[in-house]
Amino acid sequence: MEQFGFRSKFSTKAASYSLISEVLNVLNNKHIIRGIFCDLTKVFDCFNHGILLSKLKYYGKTGTFYS
What we know:
The protein is mainly alpha-helical. It has two helices and no strands.
């Protein structure tokens, strides 16, 4: 498993290639493969921002990071 998001030189193209390559490798070896795909694009909208800000302040995250 690899992380592609938020890393330089790791594009969606590289992520797609890695996934397809791994799937083909598993299928060529006659194994079963399963996948779970989650769309997390709206995850930030699903929680209470006030609670997040209070936790950030509690753990000492202030300044630009907090803003």
